[in-house]
Input
Amino acid sequence: MLRVDFLRNWCAWSDSMAEETLCESEAMRRFIVIELGDDCITDDPTILNFRHLLEQNGLTEAIFANFKADHRHDRHAP
Output
């Protein structure tokens, strides 16, 4: 679910657009590590509930700040 939320934020998608894209894009499904036939595609109410859970617990900003800090160093690697 966290990878779905990352995609949703990076691409500025609505919850329903994230669901639709996951159904249509093999590349996006690979990123979040699901197979179309094997796993349940996350629906927009589940994406919304997960996003609200992160927001209610103040985790959204902390997760993205940690991610940015970790990957800021990757750009400067030799």
About this structure: The chain has a mean pLDDT of 84. DSSP finds five helices and no strands in the chain. Residues 59-72 form the longest helix (14 residues). Helices lie at 2-10, 15-24, 26-31, 44-56, 59-72.
